[in-house]
Protein: CBS domain-containing protein
Organism: Streptomyces chilikensis
Amino acid sequence: MLYRRTVGDVMTEEVVTFRPDTPLHEVAALLDVNDIVAAPVVDDDGAPVGVVSASDVLRHETSLPDPQGQDGNDERSWSKARARTAGALMSSPVFTARADWTIPRAARELRRRHVKQLPVVGDDGLLTGIVTRSDLLDALLRSDAEIRDEVEQDVLGRILGLDEDTVAVEVRDGVVTVRGHVPEPRLVPVVVGLCQGVVGVVAVDAHLTAASAGTPEP
């Protein structure tokens, strides 16, 4: 539905997790076998307390601290280099998302926090899933057919209540072209604005005629 796609729709629910006392050789093995770049560390209740990434493990294996400026704390960097467990190596505090967040909100949070994934937690703070940059990109890169259906069914039908044959919709490479007529001039920018709000739309090309008191307007 328009404007309603959320993190819960695209997140992975079966999440690979570590405990603070998970040995690093197990961390490396699980990241490799599951082909993932990072995973959350959870406490006894299942609440995320940190994240361990493949880059963390690689830096540890080369006995080097984080690059200068990465965390701004040399003692912390060398402490990580001496780590033997997920809890000692993890990045903390952990930044999380909620399942009811919109896709744009989650994308902004990823960008603001400079991370590639966010553990998703419920009202109780316990882990319910994980959302990655790839998940969000997949949600945005929709097919032309999916976009056309949403414009026709949600924008023109459910929201504006226009008759089925009033406006024709074409979508090519994410560009929506609408042709036809609407009952009032004020609806022209409304149609354009709503179409622009559909996830995956690149641009809107409107060729609409509006009638006011029986007088057509371009």
User: Anything to note?
Assistant: The beta strands are 38-42, 48-53, 97-98, 117-121, 127-132, 167-172, 175-182, 203-212, 215-217. The first helix runs from residue 7 to 10.
